Structures are given as C-alpha cells and as structure tokens.
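queue> holo job accepted (zinc ion)
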Amino acid sequence: MSVSVPATRVAAYAAPAPKAPLERTTVPRRPVGEHDVLIDIKYAGICHSDIHQVRDGWREGIYPMVPGHEIAGVVAEVGPGVTRFAVGDRVGVGVFVDSCRACAYCLRGDEHFCTEGSTGTYNALDRNGEPTYGGYSTRIVVDENYTVRIPDGLALDTAAPLLCAGITLYSPLRHWQAGPGKKVAVVGLGGLGHMGVKIAAALGAEVTVLSRSLSKREDALKLGAAHYYATDDETTFEKLAGTFDLILSTVSAPLGLDAYLALLKVDGALVNVGAPEEPVALNLFSVIDGRKTLAGSMIGGIAETQEMLDFCAAHGLGSEIELIRAEQVNEAYERVLASDVRYRFVIDTATI
Ligand code: NAP
Ligand code: ZN
Ligand code: ZN
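queue> job finished
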C-alpha cells in the first residue's frame, strides 16, 4: 500500500487536432484512487484503430488525442483498496478502462458490450466527464478491475499488441470454436491478422492466409499457416469456393463480402473484425444459399483477455514487432496505411 499523489502531468504523444501529426506534449493523470494502479508504461502498440481515430474516420474524436490501447508496463503504485496487484507486477491495459459493472453484460464478463458503453482507454470521457488519454505516454492510472496480468513467460514488448490485436482474434476464434478439424481463413496479414494465424494454429485449426499479394507468403507459413493465397489472383476465389468453416476478416478497408462468403462451407461463418470507415454492400443471397453467418466481433472482456494472455504464454506466442522511438510514430502511421509493417509497431515509451 502506498499514499496517493495529486493529479499529475505525464509526457505523451498526442494529435492536437483531427488528421494532425502527433507531437510530444503532457497530459493529466488522475490521483491514484482507492482501487487504482499507477502503471509505468514500458511499451505501447500501434493499432490501426489508433489511425482511424486520430484521423477522425469513425466519429467525432476528442482532441488532443493520445492514442494507445495496447499497453504493457509495470505497477509503480497501488491504491489502498487494491487487492489484485502489487508494486512491481507486470501488467497490461487494453481497449477500455471502465464500464458500468452492473448490467448483464458486465456481470457475465462482456464488459466491452456494457449497455452504458465501456469507457475507451482514450478518445472517451470517464465517469467524471474527463477525457481519457491512452498508452503513447509514460504513465497511466487504471482501476485494478480493468488491468490484466502479463505472465512471466511473455516479454513486455511483444506482449503489448496482445492487449488489442491478440484478444480481438482470440475471442472470435474461441466463440466460433476454431480447433482441430476446422478450416479457418484469416483475411489480411497485418497486426490483427498475424495474431489470428498464430492463435488459430495454436488452437489446432488448419489455417489459410488470404492476403492481397504473395509478398507475405513465407512469413505466413512461419507464423503457422498451412496454406496461403493471393486475393488479387481471381483464380483464388474459384479454387477455394466452399472451403472454410470460419473466415476472419481483419481488413481495414471495405471488403467485397459476397466473394468471401462464397468461400464458406454450408453453415460457415464470416466474422469481421476489421472496422472500415465506409459501409459495405452485400447481396443477401450470399448468406441465404448455404445458411451462412455474417458476423462481427469486438475485442473481448477482461477475464477473456487474461485467458488469452495465459494461453499465449503457455504456447509461447507474442506479436512480431518493429520497436520504434516515439518520434517515429507519424512515419509508422504512414507505413501501417501502406501495409508496410511486419507486423506491429510498438513504441518504446522510454523515448517519449
Ligand atoms: P493493419 O495492421 O493495417 O492490417 C490490416 C490488413 O488489411 C493489412 O495488412 C492488409 O493485409 C489488409 N488491407 C489493408 N487495406 C486493404 C484494402 N484496401 N483491401 C484489402 N485488404 C486491405 O491493421 P490492424 O491493426 O490489424 O487492424 C485491422 C482493422 O481492424 C482496422 O480497421 C482496425 O480498426 C480494426 N480493429 C478492430 C478491432 C475489433 O475489436 N473489432 C480491434 C482492433 C482493430 P494484406 O496486405 O495482407 O492484404
Ligand atoms: Zn486496437
Ligand atoms: Zn455494464
């Protein structure tokens, strides 16, 4: 137990306005409350969602915006009521930092679907109406109930992307029961997609990567894929018609859904985790014929995020990362937009 300190300002990288480059600044962190942990952030992953939000692609953003919801660090201080963590513990924070804690979804561990809306780690307002600021920063204060433990077997830098990319793929893979005997395709080999390949393969599924070109083929096979096809080759869609039990699309841009639905077996499911800024068209016969499911999935709850971290530790799974200095963040955004990342940028927050 330690004594809480007054609200303090910490170094961060923020976008001052929509579409503006990120720059170094400071942002406030609340005093460490009864159930809070103060975390020294060590690493923060760059998710494509950070770019959608900084560039105001989804909805009205709150500026200045400090992105970052793939946070790995070490507990520096705990509030007097904290029971789950101690100073020195290795911890992670993902996409949300609070929820109502009383609705049916919160009570069953689906806090991310809270009926009152979970509180985003950044680009949101907390219970007191104060803006939240994310992980491109040196320190953060988070309620212990929205903090997870990073197992000893995982390095903090390669674990950081698991807090969003990892759980976003783990949750639907479990929900749709990927495992031995199941043919699973992952569309788009980026930050989410490469974790999807690793996790699906570790679950025992037969994994196929569908990427636009053949350029990532060798990588995909090393990550655990059994098969790889380029979607810019139209014969791919002929060859693979009716093949998969489950397809996970991680594509950040609108996708021609009908072509991918045709790759499912009868009763198969196409699950979208990619979150493009524009709506997509659909011919309903693509799901009618074959009783197919078109679904979406969003991150996962706190307990499931812990389960995912424990699973990744047990299977030796971390993210493939390019570690960058904070001042490289704008350049990194351009490279993500060009799909020129192998496979997640992670900011070394000691450089902020
Ligand atoms: P990323 O690293 O940029 O990967 C996206 C991949 O999509 C790219 O590597 C590329 O794969 C493919 N792609 C990009 N543009 C494309 C286009 N115009 N046509 C076809 N394929 C294209 O991004 P990420 O961080 O993995 O995030 C992916 C998406 O998921 C984003 O929209 C993000 O906001 C969203 N997301 C959703 C959740 C959730 O809870 N549902 C959580 C996190 C992120 P190839 O080069 O291999 O073709
Ligand atoms: Zn994310
Ligand atoms: Zn709730």
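queue> The mean pLDDT is 96.
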